[in-house]
């Protein structure tokens, strides 16, 4: 047995204004697992048992680190622009 939370939108097939319309604290209810998020240690549950899961039943892989979009430069970048020029001139005056 595992405790969990059911989002208000997943309590019933109809609009639920107040969760107390459907359940009360301490109720034991039947739920269906929609998704398991291991990195966040969360389980997405629904009480709408007739619904099919939105995603496939395959486990979702953890997101991988993104690869850089462009190849890194090997030589240092030349400073330029109006702000760099103004800073350079200000440094020369001191």
Average pLDDT metric: 75
Q: Evaluate the radius of gyration.
A: 27 Å
Distance between the termini: 72 Å
Strand order of the largest sheet: 1-2
Query: Regarding quaternary structure, how should these chains be classified?
Result: single chain
Order of helices and strands: EEH
Q: Helices and strands: which structural class?
A: little secondary structure
- Low-confidence residue ranges: none
Give me the number of helical elements: 1
Question: Which keywords apply here?
Answer:
94 residues, little secondary structure, 2 strands, two-stranded antiparallel sheet
Write a structural description:
- The chain is mostly loops and 94 residues long.
- It has a domain at 1-60.
- The chain has one helix and two strands; from the N terminus they run ββα.
- It has one helix spanning 82-93, and strands at residues 32-37, 42-46.
- The chain has a two-stranded antiparallel ribbon with strand order 1-2.
- A hairpin with a 4-residue loop joins strand 1 and strand 2.
- The radius of gyration is 27 Å and the shape is rod-shaped.
List strands and helices in order, with pairings:
Blueprint: E1 32-37, E2 42-46, H1 82-93
Antiparallel strand pairs: 1-2
Task: Describe, in short, the structure shown.
This protein is largely without helices or strands. Helix content is 13%, strand content 12%.
